[in-house]
Amino acid sequence: MINILVTGSNGQLGKSIKDMEYKHSNFNFIFTDYQELDISDFNSVENFFKNNSIDFCINCAAYTAVDQAENNPEEAYQINELGVKNLATVIKNNQTILIHISTDFVFDGTKKEPYTEADSTNPLNVYGDSKLKGETHIQTILTNYFIIRTSWLYSEHGNNFVKTMLRLASEKNEIQVVNDQIGSPTYAKDLAEFILWIISENINDYGLYHYCNSGSISWYEFTLNIFKILNIHTKVIPTSSSKYKTLATRPLYSVLSTKKTEEVFNLKSKPFLTSLNNCLKHL
Question: Which residues does the annotation mark as catalytic?
Fold first, then answer.
């Protein structure tokens, strides 16, 4: 039996992993949220690992409120940097393999083609910077780890762009959506499937990888696709980021290249439209 700790398990990805638990009878999942395991508390992490034998730790715990992080930087760094450092430090002495989830927001969006794992990072906001610092701690402390950067995550669970657009469509006749931020929407269940595949196949090609659904699109175009699939007639008006002010500056282009991931693991990313259809069926 393989013991798998999933931190932050009440988030989108954690719940998507829970949805797949039934497919993996040889995995013993230990799902925790911050009430059971506060990764920003070193003693809490150390005691947890002393009392539990963990083969893999999938770290889904994160402060993901991008705009709120600008006003609460201390909290964002506590979880996204210090919490990750705590996990890596304790894991080093416990023969556990860490699978850590990171973000496209480590990049500044000035590139015009998909970002590779070798590209220079330059986060524009507290969230991106705190996540990057977490990555750095893992790379400094551990050798047996997977850092998986993903982008524009959505699912049936929690708060996400798809569910927000559906709520707005039920409340309004027309909505404005930015059309100059380009990325790759990623279905959390596809990411969950990829992570569990790494574990089940006993993969040891450790390192930093990008995983997202294939294809790139603006938030505006993404909304049009959602509404088209569900035959929603709410009018969608394109607007620029400069007109839609937010606390956090976001990269205008944050498409991730999955070429390395596809070559190393010999797999193809699912097209975002296929995955969007799958998600909307379950919604």
Answer: 127
